[in-house]
Write a structure and sequence with these properties.
This protein is of the alpha+beta class and 151 residues long. It is built from three helices and nine strands. The strands form two sheets. The chain has a seven-stranded antiparallel beta sheet with strand order 3-4-5-9-8-7-6. A two-stranded antiparallel sheet has the order 1-2.
């Protein structure tokens, strides 16, 4: 039986063995993080319209480079992506493991904008060790489809 998240205009089904991580006071209630049992995570954050995709992607790239050193980055086109959707695959080494991080930026659905008028985009990040990333990529795609199909 899948678990359900409802918040900031989204209703998402996700695997019951994934854990909804508590958010700190400094993180607010405008996003969520789901922890995978194997140590990876999926996060969704609402973003104001005031920042460009290029700025956001550059900040994420810089943060990962500061933390992990060498990071490979490649913009990708995902199946089912809308015209304004951007996706970047990043990979790096951590503790002798290859880690993949997929970052997707897409327009916030109308239901999110009704609850949070300033929210123009969603930032979705899925990160896990390469084997776990591959094993859970279909689940990530299904979550992404749920978001894209939200009205």
């Amino acid at each position: 039986m899948p678990a359900t998240f409802e918040g900031f205009g989204l209703k998402l089904l996700y695997p019951e063995n994934w854990t909804l991580a508590p958010r700190g006071d400094d993180e607010g209630d405008q996003g969520l993080t789901l922890d995978l049992p194997s140590g990876g995570f999926l996060s969704i954050e609402t973003l104001p319209i005031t920042r460009s995709d290029d700025e956001i992607l550059a900040e994420i790239d810089e943060m990962l480079r500061e933390q992990y050193g060498n990071v490979e980055s490649q913009e990708v086109k995902l199946t089912g992506a809308s015209d304004g959707e951007r996706a970047v695959d990043l990979s790096f080494y951590h503790l002798d493991l290859v880690v993949f991080s997929r970052v997707v930026l897409l327009d916030a659905p109308d239901s999110t904008r009704r609850q949070m008028p300033i929210a123009g985009r969603l930032l979705i990040q899925f990160q896990a060790e390469s084997r776990d990333f591959d094993e859970n990529e279909m689940v990530f795609s299904a979550l992404l489809k749920q978001i894209r199909d939200t009205e």
